[in-house]
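Hi,

I'm pasting everything inline rather than attaching a file, because the server keeps stripping attachments. The sequence lines come first, and each chain or strand is labelled.
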Amino acid sequence: MSDTTTTTTKPIRDFALAVRAALSDLPADDVDDLTDGLEADLTEQAADFGDADAGVAAPDLELGDPVAYADELRGAAGLPVRGATPTLRMSVLHRLRARAGVVCAGAARRIRSTAAGAAVLDFLLVLRPLWWVLRGWVVYAVAEIFLGGAISTVPTDPVRWLVLGSFVVLSVQWGRGRWLPWRWLPGFRTVVSVCALLVLPLVLVLTAHQTVNAEASAYVDSTPSSSPGLVQNGQEVTNVFAYDANGQPLTDVQLFDQDGRALNVVIDPAITDHLLQFDAAGEQDMVVPSLLVPGGSGWNVYPLRLVASADIDYTYDYLGQASQADATPAPLPFAQVRPLVDVPAAGEPSPASSLAPSPATTLAPTQSPEPAASAAPVAEQ
Amino acid sequence: MDTTQLLKGVLDMAVLAVIVDDDGYGYDIVRRLRAAGLDEVGDASVYGTLRRLYSAGALSSYVVPSDGGPHRKYYGMNANGRAMLAEQRENWTHFADTLTRLLEQPQPSVPLLTIGDNS
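And the predicted assembly:
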């Protein structure tokens, strides 16, 4: 017996692990019986080997193929050869996994046998964390499509971002070999990886489509916000002027439509603080809402006041900022209009007398007259 | 001829023989076999054989903790094992004698009848 004190080296530990893996289809007790003390035996053998070949350049024990070693072990022990009697479904799975492991190890060894192969493999190994993140995202996207109800591969709200984050963290932890408390989880992880790999192209295509669509819809969305809130004959109405029965201009008139809605000149009065209006010289003025309505939604109180282009502050942004303090009453289209006349009382139908004044009295104020046209009737008073 | 094939049939006996007087642990037994001249014996075959003999009730086993290293699983003979070894030794001696005689004195060939020879 050799009393040489030797430590179990990593190759021996790896070899013993591989042997146990190759025996993994056997009951755990059998594996223990067969491989109990295997490291110690191998270590001692390696020490013997080193002693015998003292002075030789490479005194390392050639451990050989762990699978062949395991087959020899089980053959000598009279245990069934691998794959002889697949009685349990679980054992088939185990065997498949062991065989896949052997195939992978063999493939890796073949790839590593060339310098270029080794370099490529090392490069890909560095990229593994990227794959872990991608895997988390793909699983999120699939879950989103099938469970979340939305067909969006990119989160649209904080909750979904949180879910995506959870998937990514889980995937990365799995990639690092953490968070796998149950024995079936590594197998499940493999299934998820394969599925994710298969679905990845689909998810990428979907995402690309969504990006294009999002840009398109963003463009469409921006259009209505610039469309006028109040239109007359296709022309935007930016202000309204009311005159009383005597033809005198009114101020602070609140207008509503047939449904009781405030008659605003802007689409969204609550968040709009100005409306552009071009004056005769082509300068941009800004129409601002009345301050008399609490909450800044005084867009239906006419006539709206105006901030002249000269008072608009372009210091901070190119759109310009208007201050309510600079707002002035909008210039009236007419200083005053023709007063209304008394309508003949009902029950005195007089076609001849009612026809005569009606063109003059009703047409003039309602036909949005030219300033020159309105001046004439007023002057007649 | 490949001696490993020959060894397969007699490894039980060889293993029993090297621990008949002195208990041993796995690699210790391999070493004894190799020292005895069975250079080509595979260690895995020996460990497997030990496991099978133990399961068959021919060996007893006990664990000995070692200083500064992993524990050792020792195997020793029991009555059952000794009986097995005695029987195998007898069979082997008989078989070996027969085969030795066969090899040293080839049997005269028995004249065979050929097809169609009706004599």
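Residues 185-226 of chain A form the longest helix (42 residues).

If the labels don't parse on your end, tell me and I'll reformat.
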